[in-house]
Amino acid sequence: MSTTGLRDRRKRQTRQEISDIATRLFVARGFDDVTIAQVATAAGVAKMTVTNHFPRKEDLVLDIHEEFIARLGEVVAGRDAGESPLAALRRTYFEDLAQRDAMLGFSGQDFARLIAGSPTLLARLREIHEERETALAAVLAREFDEFTAAITAAHVIAVHRTLVGEVQRRTVAGQATDEIAEALEPLAAQAFDALERLVDAG
Fold first, then answer.
1. What CATH topology corresponds to 3-56?
2. CA-to-CA distance for 8 and 23, rounded, in angstroms?
3. In principle, which of 65, 107, 134, 144 could form an S-S bond with 111, CB 3.0–4.6 Å?
4. Residues 95-124: tens digit of each pLDDT
5. What is the pTM of this model?
6. Other CB atoms closer than 10 Å to residue 178's CB: what's the count?
7. DNA-binding region(s): which residue ranges (predicted)?
């Protein structure tokens, strides 16, 4: 492995370790009651190291936000020839549901309660969904006019956001992961059916 590759791997490992330690502290004490300085002390790093990796405190918890924002656009851009954007998004959702993917909200009860109990984290999550909509619209605009791309992205994100919220709600209530996934299958099918009708009507 090259020196650059090793450095990047160590940087990713450090970032993940900081996020994991911070999340454990937040779960134990509450998001608002833990400072960046306390995270740095627990992780054995300088406060500046934490802020270099995570400019926003919220992203210590929502640490996969960049992948989350890019995910749907990547699905559309990388879909098979002849497959429509909505078909690709629907297929991928159910593939991810079968894997209980964290990007669909499967994160465990402690984590779900942490998010649900913090207005700051909920506000950041709303921002992330909005950023995801913008990113998806940009990819769709390569194939459609800007209005069609924007309205389609808005509908798609509304579906995903509602389904993520349903997973989180059921997780907080104590339902088992497999039980939640089973309950989500018909709800997701209903949501994507409605999405297809909306887009087709447009």
1. Arc Repressor Mutant, subunit A (1.10.10)
2. 23
3. 107
4. 999 999 999 999 899 999 999 999 999 999
5. 0.88
6. 9
7. 35-54
